[in-house]
Specification:
Protein name: Ig-like domain-containing protein
Strand order of the largest sheet: 1-9-8-3-6
Keywords: Membrane, Transmembrane, Transmembrane helix
Structural class: alpha+beta
Shape: rod-shaped
CATH architecture of the largest domain: Sandwich
Transmembrane segments: 61-80
Region (Disordered): 1-24
Biased composition (Basic and acidic residues): 7-23
Oligomer: single chain
Largest sheet: 5 strands, mixed
Helix content: 25-40%
CATH superfamily of the largest domain: Immunoglobulins
């Protein structure tokens, strides 16, 4: 006689064997693909996921645009901080109106003009030139010198370098004394307005 448990188990196996998984129709896979493509990519979650999604999606345009913007910003900053160019000639300097005098001196006295050339670093050799207009003369050892211009070479120390120049006015008026220093590619010019008064 057979055990009732065995009979039930055999019947269950037969029923399970009769069940078959029918494959989906061939058009189902194509229809699912079309629906997924039409739906598009899923929306990113709020927060950092949305930021990462945006950066990933716009990277081909965003990064080159940021590079161009950074280049333009650097150009504008450099243009704003650059020193204005040195005037090309003394004729241009002399043609502009003279500013307020830096030194006022009677015609009977000698004026000491102190030229201050400031250097960021020490310079072994710098070329200097000081030029006087008609009406002024260099003064040394108690007498007037015939030269209209002096040129010499000397080192510059880091920081302030004060160079005194003694001049005397022959007649009353306002005069522009031009001083220039050149060290390598760098050129520095000073204009000093000297007013000579009667007396």
């Amino acid at each position: 006689m057979s055990d009732p448990g065995d009979t039930e188990e055999r019947a269950l196996r037969e029923q399970l064997g009769a069940l078959r998984d029918d494959p989906p129709e061939l058009g189902f896979q194509a229809a699912l693909h079309r629906r997924l493509v039409a739906a598009g990519p899923p929306e990113p979650a709020p927060g950092w996921d949305r930021v990462r999604w945006f950066l990933r999606r716009s990277a081909p345009v965003l990064w080159p645009s940021l590079g161009v913007a950074a280049g333009v910003a650097a150009f504008l900053v450099m243009s704003a901080t650059q020193q204005p160019p040195v005037p090309p000639s003394k004729a241009v300097q002399a043609s502009r109106p003279l500013e307020a005098p830096g030194t006022v001196v009677p015609a009977s006295k000698v004026a000491i003009i102190k030229l201050d050339f400031t250097a960021d670093v020490a310079v072994e050799q710098a070329d200097f030139q000081v030029s006087l207009p008609e009406g002024l003369a260099f003064w040394a050892d108690g007498e007037e010198l015939p030269q209209r211009s002096f040129t010499w070479t000397q080192p510059l120390s880091e920081g302030s370098n004060v160079i005194p120049i003694a001049v005397r006015g022959r007649k009353a008026g306002r005069y522009l004394v031009t001083a220039m220093a050149r060290a390598g590619d760098q050129r520095i010019e000073h204009d000093v307005v000297l007013e000579v008064t009667d007396g």
